[in-house]
């Protein structure tokens, strides 16, 4: 089975034709060996960044200081990174300097885990100086070289270990697991944005429950800005169909004030909006089963995760399945204001009155009347309903 997209293969081929080495590296090679669909494909090359730019006519400098050039091939963006080594790490997060080198082995040595330190040539030869293939077979996460040193160099690798445990379900090799525990406090040197990116991936892993247990057993959770105490409850809400569902359970189980959570993990406005809705929906769910109001007000995604969390926290109470929620929501006469068959212009026409605040108020009333089945959502019925109500109130 050939590896990579036609575009990525062409990039490798052209680099080789120009006299350089070029190979596939990183997670896509690992996933390929696991028989999984590769995510982003990374190419490593002996060509220096300026040389890469000479080979291809259409490139972008996306991370040239780290050796990465984006090559456009057949309209597809392909990342090409020059073989590099990393200097010392004074701050446990970023190398003080990177050096471009011509040796692939040097490049693979700087990578985090044996399963990620593999390269694949265009003709399918696997270059594996650290026994990555064997570890993949054994389903083991093993640091390249001395685990303690590697975690001390870059503490992000600590949380990456746990996120790979979540996505791959691999066990953590003994020395790596010990180093994980011993170096957990170093995670404090890593920016929350980078931690959040790994947590996002952790949440959607198939083995998230196991990963959450590892997180707690290695005491890593104590080093994170916020973490729920009742880890079992959080696990009971899994699996998560999106990172946000994971964060929602994290927030509710941890009983965190949404604002505190947003600040601690620097969440985006979009994330905040979703989590605020879940927080409100959950309060309403505590008061009773979801009814028309909630089914209308909240998105299917918000309803789903809120109900799931409720069920995990109160397993003896009646709950609705995803399918039931979807069906009930689908049965509402309208899904949003936009579905209403009339607008302000109609109201002005029917009354002969000019626009103003009253329009919004009456449209809201019409929306509620349709939602609660007091009026059918057609222009004709809404006109009748409106004129009689309007007259009554006049
Ligand atoms: P995914 O499938 O989630 O993208 P990945 O292994 O490709 O997983 P990336 O974050 O995309 O992970 O990184 C690409 C490669 O870069 C890794 O496979 C690894 O070889 C290397 N790498 C990434 N982060 C680090 C790190 N902090 N320390 C050492 N090597 C790293
Ligand atoms: Mg990747």
From TrEMBL:
<feature type="binding site">
    <location>
        <position position="30"/>
    </location>
    <ligand>
        <name>CTP</name>
    </ligand>
</feature>
<keyword id="KW-0819">tRNA processing</keyword>
<comment type="function">
    <text>Catalyzes the addition and repair of the essential 3'-terminal CCA sequence in tRNAs without using a nucleic acid template. Adds these three nucleotides in the order of C, C, and A to the tRNA nucleotide-73, using CTP and ATP as substrates and producing inorganic pyrophosphate. tRNA 3'-terminal CCA addition is required both for tRNA processing and repair. Also involved in tRNA surveillance by mediating tandem CCA addition to generate a CCACCA at the 3' terminus of unstable tRNAs. While stable tRNAs receive only 3'-terminal CCA, unstable tRNAs are marked with CCACCA and rapidly degraded.</text>
</comment>
<protein>
    <recommendedName>
        <fullName>CCA-adding enzyme</fullName>
        <ecNumber>2.7.7.72</ecNumber>
    </recommendedName>
</protein>
<keyword id="KW-0694">RNA-binding</keyword>
<dbReference type="InterPro" id="IPR032810">
    <property type="entry name" value="CCA-adding_enz_C"/>
</dbReference>
<feature type="domain" description="tRNA nucleotidyltransferase/poly(A) polymerase RNA and SrmB- binding">
    <location>
        <begin position="169"/>
        <end position="225"/>
    </location>
</feature>
<feature type="binding site">
    <location>
        <position position="157"/>
    </location>
    <ligand>
        <name>CTP</name>
    </ligand>
</feature>
<feature type="binding site">
    <location>
        <position position="157"/>
    </location>
    <ligand>
        <name>ATP</name>
    </ligand>
</feature>
<feature type="binding site">
    <location>
        <position position="30"/>
    </location>
    <ligand>
        <name>ATP</name>
    </ligand>
</feature>
<dbReference type="InterPro" id="IPR043519">
    <property type="entry name" value="NT_sf"/>
</dbReference>
<feature type="binding site">
    <location>
        <position position="111"/>
    </location>
    <ligand>
        <name>ATP</name>
    </ligand>
</feature>
<dbReference type="Pfam" id="PF01743">
    <property type="entry name" value="PolyA_pol"/>
</dbReference>
<feature type="binding site">
    <location>
        <position position="27"/>
    </location>
    <ligand>
        <name>ATP</name>
    </ligand>
</feature>
<dbReference type="InterPro" id="IPR032828">
    <property type="entry name" value="PolyA_RNA-bd"/>
</dbReference>
<comment type="subunit">
    <text>Homodimer.</text>
</comment>
<feature type="domain" description="CCA-adding enzyme C-terminal">
    <location>
        <begin position="245"/>
        <end position="385"/>
    </location>
</feature>
<dbReference type="InterPro" id="IPR023068">
    <property type="entry name" value="CCA-adding_enz_firmicutes"/>
</dbReference>
<feature type="binding site">
    <location>
        <position position="163"/>
    </location>
    <ligand>
        <name>CTP</name>
    </ligand>
</feature>
<feature type="binding site">
    <location>
        <position position="160"/>
    </location>
    <ligand>
        <name>ATP</name>
    </ligand>
</feature>
<keyword id="KW-0479">Metal-binding</keyword>
<feature type="binding site">
    <location>
        <position position="42"/>
    </location>
    <ligand>
        <name>Mg(2+)</name>
    </ligand>
</feature>
<keyword id="KW-0808">Transferase</keyword>
<feature type="binding site">
    <location>
        <position position="163"/>
    </location>
    <ligand>
        <name>ATP</name>
    </ligand>
</feature>
<feature type="binding site">
    <location>
        <position position="160"/>
    </location>
    <ligand>
        <name>CTP</name>
    </ligand>
</feature>
<dbReference type="GO" id="GO:0004810">
    <property type="term" value="F:CCA tRNA nucleotidyltransferase activity"/>
</dbReference>
<feature type="domain" description="Poly A polymerase head">
    <location>
        <begin position="24"/>
        <end position="142"/>
    </location>
</feature>
<keyword id="KW-0548">Nucleotidyltransferase</keyword>
<dbReference type="InterPro" id="IPR050264">
    <property type="entry name" value="Bact_CCA-adding_enz_type3_sf"/>
</dbReference>
<feature type="binding site">
    <location>
        <position position="111"/>
    </location>
    <ligand>
        <name>CTP</name>
    </ligand>
</feature>
<feature type="binding site">
    <location>
        <position position="154"/>
    </location>
    <ligand>
        <name>CTP</name>
    </ligand>
</feature>
<dbReference type="Pfam" id="PF13735">
    <property type="entry name" value="tRNA_NucTran2_2"/>
</dbReference>
<comment type="similarity">
    <text>Belongs to the tRNA nucleotidyltransferase/poly(A) polymerase family. Bacterial CCA-adding enzyme type 3 subfamily.</text>
</comment>
<feature type="binding site">
    <location>
        <position position="154"/>
    </location>
    <ligand>
        <name>ATP</name>
    </ligand>
</feature>
<dbReference type="InterPro" id="IPR002646">
    <property type="entry name" value="PolA_pol_head_dom"/>
</dbReference>
<keyword id="KW-0692">RNA repair</keyword>
<feature type="binding site">
    <location>
        <position position="40"/>
    </location>
    <ligand>
        <name>Mg(2+)</name>
    </ligand>
</feature>
<keyword id="KW-0067">ATP-binding</keyword>
<feature type="binding site">
    <location>
        <position position="27"/>
    </location>
    <ligand>
        <name>CTP</name>
    </ligand>
</feature>
<dbReference type="Pfam" id="PF12627">
    <property type="entry name" value="PolyA_pol_RNAbd"/>
</dbReference>
<keyword id="KW-0460">Magnesium</keyword>
<keyword id="KW-0547">Nucleotide-binding</keyword>
């Amino acid at each position: 089975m050939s590896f990579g997209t036609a575009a990525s293969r062409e990039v490798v081929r052209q680099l080789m034709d120009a006299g350089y080495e070029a190979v596939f590296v990183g997670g896509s090679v690992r996933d390929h060996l696991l028989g999984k669909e590769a995510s982003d494909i990374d190419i490593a090359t002996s060509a220096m960044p300026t040389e890469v730019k000479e080979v291809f006519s259409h490139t972008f400098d996306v991370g040239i200081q780290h050796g990465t050039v984006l090559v456009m091939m057949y309209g597809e963006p392909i990342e090409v990174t020059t073989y590099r080594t990393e200097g010392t790490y004074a701050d446990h997060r970023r190398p003080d300097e990177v050096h471009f080198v011509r040796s692939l082995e040097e490049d693979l040595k700087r990578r985090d885990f044996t399963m990620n330190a593999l390269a694949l040539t265009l003709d399918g030869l696997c270059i594996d100086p650290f026994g990555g293939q064997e570890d993949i077979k054994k389903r083991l996460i093993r640091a390249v070289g001395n685990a303690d040193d590697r975690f001390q160099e870059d503490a992000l690798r600590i949380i990456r270990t746990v996120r790979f445990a979540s996505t791959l379900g691999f066990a953590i090799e003994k020395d790596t697991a010990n180093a994980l525990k011993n170096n957990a406090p170093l995670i404090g040197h890593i920016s929350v944005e980078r931690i959040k990116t790994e947590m996002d991936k952790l949440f959607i892993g198939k083995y998230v429950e196991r990963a959450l247990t590892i997180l707690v057993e290695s005491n890593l959770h104590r080093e994170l800005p916020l973490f729920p105490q009742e880890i079992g409850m959080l696990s009971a809400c899994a699996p998560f169909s999106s990172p946000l569902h994971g964060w929602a359970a994290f927030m509710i189980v941890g009983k965190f004030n949404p604002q505190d959570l947003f600040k601690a993990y620097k969440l985006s406005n979009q994330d905040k909006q979703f989590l605020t809705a879940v927080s409100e929906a959950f309060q309403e769910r505590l008061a009773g089963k979801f009814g028309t109001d909630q089914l209308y007000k909240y998105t299917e995604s918000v309803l789903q995760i809120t109900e799931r969390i409720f069920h995990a926290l109160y397993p003896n109470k009646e709950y609705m399945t995803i399918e039931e929620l979807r069906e009930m929501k689908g049965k509402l006469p309208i899904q949003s204001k936009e579905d209403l068959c009339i607008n302000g212009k109609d109201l002005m026409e029917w009354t002969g009155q000019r626009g103003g605040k009253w329009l919004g108020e009456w449209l809201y009333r019409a929306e509620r009347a349709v939602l609660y089945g007091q009026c059918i959502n057609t222009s004709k019925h809404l006109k009748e309903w409106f004129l009689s109500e309007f007259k009554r109130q006049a």
